[in-house]
């Protein structure tokens, strides 16, 4: 996680700037979290418990993080390029294509919003699992 922090600072100050969304750092963070989630699932398969896994709050939290990061990974990866392409179209005088790209860029965040909603529902399920113990 410290490496991701250093990468984010380097990327925003030296190579990327702060004008657009930092796709590289977000993608790296999502990939790291996805890796941790897969590790958790593997450990649950290798060392099964005597009870059902869905009774554990950690399962619901990890599942929420996994769904959010997995669902948004390609959005995180490509959003900066989409914004740069839209800006390039404006400079080239192709306003119609630029408007379509900006409209698409805004509309794909609806997917991210829905994934946040699903993640929060799974976090609430984890809280309810804790209360029922």
Quick take:
The chain has 133 residues and is an all-alpha fold.
Overall body shape: elongated
Mean pLDDT: 84
Fraction of helical residues: over 70%
Largest sheet: none
Q: How many domains?
A: 1
Number of helices: 5
The N- to C-terminal Cα distance equals 32 Å
Low-confidence stretches: none
Per DSSP, what share of the residues sits in E-state strands of 2 or more residues?
A: under 5%
What integer value in Å does the Rg equal? Answer: 19 Å
Beta-strand segment tally: 0
Q: Structural class, judged by helices and strands? A: mainly alpha
Order of helices and strands: HHHHH
Keywords: Membrane, Transmembrane, Transmembrane helix
Can you walk through the features of this model?
By secondary structure, the protein is an all-alpha fold. It has one domain. Helix content is 83%, strand content 0%. It is built from five helices and no strands. It has helices at residues 2-15, 23-46, 57-91, 95-107, 109-132. Helix 1 (2-15) runs antiparallel to helix 2, helix 3 runs antiparallel to helix 4 (95-107) and helix 3 packs antiparallel against helix 5 (109-132). Keywords: Membrane, Transmembrane, Transmembrane helix. The chain crosses the membrane at residues 27-46, 58-79, 108-128.
Kindly list the characteristics that best describe this protein.
single chain, 133 residues, mainly alpha, membrane, transmembrane, transmembrane helix
Topology (SSEs and partners):
Blueprint: H1 2-15, H2 23-46, H3 57-91, H4 95-107, H5 109-132
Transmembrane segments: 27-46, 58-79, 108-128
Keywords: Membrane, Transmembrane, Transmembrane helix
């Amino acid at each position: 996680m410290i490496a991701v922090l250093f990468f984010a600072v380097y990327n925003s100050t030296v190579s990327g700037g702060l004008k657009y969304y930092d796709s590289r750092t977000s993608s790296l963070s999502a990939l790291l979290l996805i890796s941790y989630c897969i590790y958790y699932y593997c450990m649950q398969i290798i060392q099964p418990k005597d009870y059902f896994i869905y009774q554990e709050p950690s399962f619901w939290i990890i599942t929420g993080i996994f769904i959010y990061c997995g669902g948004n990974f390609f959005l995180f990866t490509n959003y900066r390029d989409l914004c740069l392409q839209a800006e390039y179209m404006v400079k080239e005088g192709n306003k119609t294509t630029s408007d379509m790209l900006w409209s698409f860029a805004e509309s794909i965040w609806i997917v991210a919003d829905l994934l946040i909603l699903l993640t929060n529902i799974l976090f609430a399920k984890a809280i309810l699992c804790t209360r029922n113990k």
